[in-house]
Each structure stands twice: as C-alpha cells, then as structure tokens.
C-alpha cells in the first residue's frame, strides 16, 4: 500500500475566534497539540500548512506556507498536496478536536479507490477532513489560477469516493468528527461535550 502524508491546515485567520484557534486550550492542551496526538501513527509523514511559521516552530513539524497566498483553504490543500512526500495526503483542519481514528483508518484504507476520499455528512462533503492524491494538483491549480476558490469546485474534474453517512455512523454515530471550533460559542459548545 502506498504511503500517506498527513497535513494539518492551520492557515486560517481565526477572525471569528478573535485569537489563533490552534492554541486555544482544549482538554488541557492547545487544540493543535491534541489533533497532532490523535493523528500520530496514521501516516508516514506529518506536515503543517500555515503562513505563520514562527508560532508553530515549537511543534517540530515541517512547515509550509501557502504557494498561492490569500486564496483561502483551497490554497492550503494545494500547498499540502504539492509538498507531500507521498502520493496521498490526509488533509485535516486545525479546529476539529474530535477526530475519530477508526473513521480515519477506514478512509485511509480506501485511498487507492479515487483521487479524493471525502466524508459526506448532512449531505455536505467535509473537504478539510479528506484524502487527496497528487493527481488532484492540476485541477486544484487550474481553479486557483482562475480564482475559482470554492473549496470543492475542483471535485468536478477528479474522481471522488464519498464516505456516506451510513458508513460514517459505523465509526462516529453523531458526526462529532466534523465539529469545528470557529467562534467562542463553538468552543463553549465543544468544551461542554468533553
């Protein structure tokens, strides 16, 4: 089986939170450290995508800034897939504290079946909790060059294997994996779920 890169996207501006959400205390540690722990051992390489390299240097991961600056999360995916040492990249947002290792392991086992392996919860794909192959790069870069920044817009030009709700529920019955923390209200809600 081919090897896998894990990329954590910490490139957002955290404008709705008012502070860098990666470093918000969650379960007694900065959220990003908890995410790194949950992902440990699932891949062969772990990298961090952020334009703020200084604040993340202490994590000891290779850090890459967006190649396409100011192009949003799609640029983060492009940067991760471009710099990944391996053919497939598991892309995870830095604000998803409830990652489910069993669901991720299932997704990883399916990585050879399409260019993208992405969960679809509540009828919507979760593009920042997905696996992308290097075959996606031309489609992503074409959209970035055209300033088409909808994160799933390029899906139309690649093969996609959706992990549907019935499969997700075998591992994560309430879709907790996809809860993200964007605002102080989200943080309070998720801390109450601890």
Task: Describe the protein in words.
The chain contains 7 helices and 10 strands. By secondary structure, the protein is an alpha/beta fold. The strands form 2 sheets. Strands 1, 4, 5, 6, 7, 8, 9 and 10 form an 8-stranded mixed beta sheet that branches. A two-stranded antiparallel sheet has the order 2-3. α3 (72-83) runs antiparallel to α5 (137-145). The radius of gyration is 16 Å and the shape is globular.
Please describe the topology of this protein.
Elements: E1 4-9, E2 25-26, E3 29-30, H1 31-39, E4 45-49, H2 53-56, E5 63-64, H3 72-83, E6 88-93, H4 101-109, E7 116-121, E8 124-125, E9 129-133, H5 137-145, E10 160-163, H6 165-171, H7 184-192
Parallel strand pairs: 1-4, 1-6, 4-5, 7-10
Antiparallel strand pairs: 2-3, 6-9, 7-8, 7-9
Helix pairs in contact: 3-5
- Helical fraction: 25-40%
Order of helices and strands: EEEHEHEHEHEEEHEHH
Evaluate the radius of gyration.
Answer: 16 Å
Tell me, what is the CATH class?
Alpha Beta
Oligomer: single chain
Mean pLDDT: 91
CATH architecture: Alpha-Beta Complex
**Low-confidence blocks of residues:** none
Q: Top keywords for this entry?
A:
two-stranded antiparallel ribbon, 194 residues, alpha/beta, Spore Coat Polysaccharide Biosynthesis Protein SpsA, Chain A
Short description:
With 194 residues, this protein is of the alpha/beta class.
């Amino acid at each position: 089986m081919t090897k896998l890169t894990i990329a954590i996207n910490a490139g957002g501006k955290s404008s709705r939170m008012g502070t860098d959400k990666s470093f918000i205390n969650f379960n007694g540690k900065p959220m990003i450290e908890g995410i790194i722990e949950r992902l440990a051992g699932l891949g062969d390489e772990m990298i961090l995508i952020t334009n703020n390299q200084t604040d993340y240097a202490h994590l000891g991961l290779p850090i890459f800034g967006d190649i396409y600056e100011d192009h949003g999360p799609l640029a983060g995916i492009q940067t991760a897939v471009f710099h990944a040492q391996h053919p497939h990249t598991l892309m995870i947002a830095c604000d998803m504290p409830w990652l489910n290792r069993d669901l991720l392991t299932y997704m990883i086992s399916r990585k050879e079946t399409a260019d993208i392996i992405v969960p679809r919860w509540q009828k919507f794909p979760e593009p920042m909790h997905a696996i992308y192959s290097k075959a996606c790069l031309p489609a992503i870069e074409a959209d970035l060059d055209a300033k088409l920044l909808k994160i799933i817009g390029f899906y139309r030009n690649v093969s996609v294997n959706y992990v549907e709700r019935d499969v997700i529920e075998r591992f994560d019955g309430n879709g907790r994996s996809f809860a993200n923390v964007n605002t102080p209200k989200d943080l309070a809600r998720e801390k109450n779920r601890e």
